[in-house]
């Protein structure tokens, strides 16, 4: 019997110390963060800092994920995934060896939680940011593969989309090795499971659909028609419909193409909102009550100026945010 056949599921308890066989670093387990097909992820502490430790009996899969994280670190700015901190093996009391790696522990909120608490305009902004990151990843020769809501987290401040599981990342040209049905174009009969940029763009569009359909929905007898009908019927996605439909039907071959179109939609949306806000202010009736007029006239001039400027700043706030993301990702990436 070889060593692999003796391996069993790993279930660390709180307070247990994992000691690396080669580098001799110690990691104290705090809690379990998740479990997947490749291994388990634990929150741990070392030298007063919290980290995430992923351990698996599949050493080849661990090696692949480590290589992906190293690739991420080569991308300028290293914005894609968590930083890689350590790679080692752990030997259990019976002498069986497991592979693990330690990465940066990302603190933040789930995408849906962040958008619901900060405003739905952030959904488009964060997707624009994610497209910039996908573009960098694709240029390195990889696709994310298992792109889904659960694998995204928003760290802040400032708000930034980060990826927390690279297990599905696949080299371009190969078959996607890990996916989730609802976000997979093959499941909807709308494309193959070949690793190419358009596969990620389909999944990104599904992330936006999923935001308004958190319970998901069945594909029915005609998956493509079901999906496109659901998109058309989702009022909140009307402004993004042309972009999402292009992504779902494979019209975009690069992230840059989708990023460009989404940027235009966001800009048009904010300009329209600003114009409406200005029109509303012009048409708003002015109160003729004398006491209010007298109080206003008695205010110090600086206070009056402050009150007149504030509504303008408030109405321009979201527009400025989108402009920053638009300029940064469209021209600098």
Task: Outline the secondary-structure elements.
Elements: H1 3-6, E1 17-19, E2 26-35, E3 40-46, E4 49-56, H2 59-74, E5 84-91, E6 97-104, E7 109-110, H3 111-118, H4 121-139, E8 142-143, E9 152-155, E10 160-163, E11 170-171, H5 197-212, H6 223-233, H7 241-248, H8 255-283, H9 290-298, H10 301-332
Q: Please tally the β strands and state the result.
A: 11
Largest sheet: 6 strands, antiparallel
Strand arrangement in the largest pleated sheet: 1-2-3-4-6-5
The level of helicity is 40-55%
Average pLDDT figure: 84
**Terminus-to-terminus distance:** 52 Å
CATH H-level homologous superfamily name of the largest domain: Transferase(Phosphotransferase) domain 1
Anisotropy-based shape = globular
The helix/strand class is alpha+beta
Label the CATH architecture of the largest domain: Orthogonal Bundle
Order of helices and strands: HEEEEHEEEHHEEEEHHHHHH
Which regions contain 5 or more consecutive residues with pLDDT less than 50?
1-5, 288-319, 326-333
Radius of gyration: 25 Å
| Count of individual domains | 2
CATH class of the largest domain: Mainly Alpha
CATH topology of the largest domain: Transferase(Phosphotransferase), domain 1
Description:
It is a single chain. This protein is of the alpha+beta class. It has 2 domains: 3-104, 2-Layer Sandwich (Phosphorylase Kinase, domain 1); 109-258, Transferase(Phosphotransferase), domain 1, CATH 1.10.510.10. Helices cover 46% and strands 17% of the residues. It is built from 10 helices and 11 strands. It has helices at 3-6, 59-74, 111-118, 121-139, 197-212, 223-233, 241-248, 255-283, 290-298, 301-332; strands at 17-19, 26-35, 40-46, 49-56, 84-91, 97-104, 109-110, 142-143, 152-155, 160-163, 170-171. The strands form 3 sheets. It has a 6-stranded antiparallel sheet, with helices on one face. A hairpin with a 4-residue loop joins strand 2 (26-35) and strand 3. Helix 4 (121-139) packs antiparallel against helix 8 (255-283) and helix 8 packs antiparallel against helix 10. The longest helix is centred in the C-terminal third of the chain and has 32 residues, at 301-332. It is globular, with a radius of gyration of 25 Å.
């Amino acid at each position: 019997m070889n060593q692999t056949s003796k391996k069993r599921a790993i279930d660390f308890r709180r307070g247990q110390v994992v000691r690396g066989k080669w580098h001799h670093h110690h990691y104290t387990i705090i809690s379990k963060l998740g479990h997947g097909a490749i291994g388990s992820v634990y929150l741990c502490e070392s030298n007063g800092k919290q980290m995430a430790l992923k351990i698996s009996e599949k050493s080849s899969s661990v090696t692949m994920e480590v290589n992906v994280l190293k690739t991420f670190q080569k991308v300028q700015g290293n914005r894609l995934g968590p930083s890689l901190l350590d790679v080692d093996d752990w030997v259990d009391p019976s002498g069986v060896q497991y592979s693990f790696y330690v990465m940066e522990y990302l603190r933040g909120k789930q995408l849906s939680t962040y958008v619901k608490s900060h405003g739905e305009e952030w959904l488009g902004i964060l997707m624009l940011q994610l497209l910039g990151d996908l573009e960098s990843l694709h240029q390195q020769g990889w696709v994310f593969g298992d792109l889904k809501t659960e694998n995204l987290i928003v760290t802040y401040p400032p708000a930034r989309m980060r990826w927390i599981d690279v297990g599905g990342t696949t080299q371009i040209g190969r078959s996607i090795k890990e996916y989730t049905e609802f976000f997979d174009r093959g499941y909807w009969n709308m494309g193959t499971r070949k690793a190419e940029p358009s596969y990620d763009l389909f999944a990104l569009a599904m992330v936006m659909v999923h935001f308004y359909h958190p319970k998901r929905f069945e594909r029915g007898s005609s998956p493509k028609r079901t999906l496109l009908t659901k998109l058309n019927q989702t009022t909140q996605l009307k402004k993004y419909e042309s972009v999402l439909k292009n992504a779902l039907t494979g019209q975009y071959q690069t992230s840059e193409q989708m990023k460009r179109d989404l940027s235009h939609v966001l800009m048009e949306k904010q300009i329209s909102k600003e114009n409406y806000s200005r029109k509303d202010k012009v048409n708003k009736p002015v109160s003729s009550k004398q006491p209010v007029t007298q109080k206003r006239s008695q205010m110090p001039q600086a206070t009056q100026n402050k009150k007149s400027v504030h509504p303008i700043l408030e109405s321009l706030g979201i527009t400025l945010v989108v402009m920053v993301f638009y300029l940064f990702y469209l021209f600098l990436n």
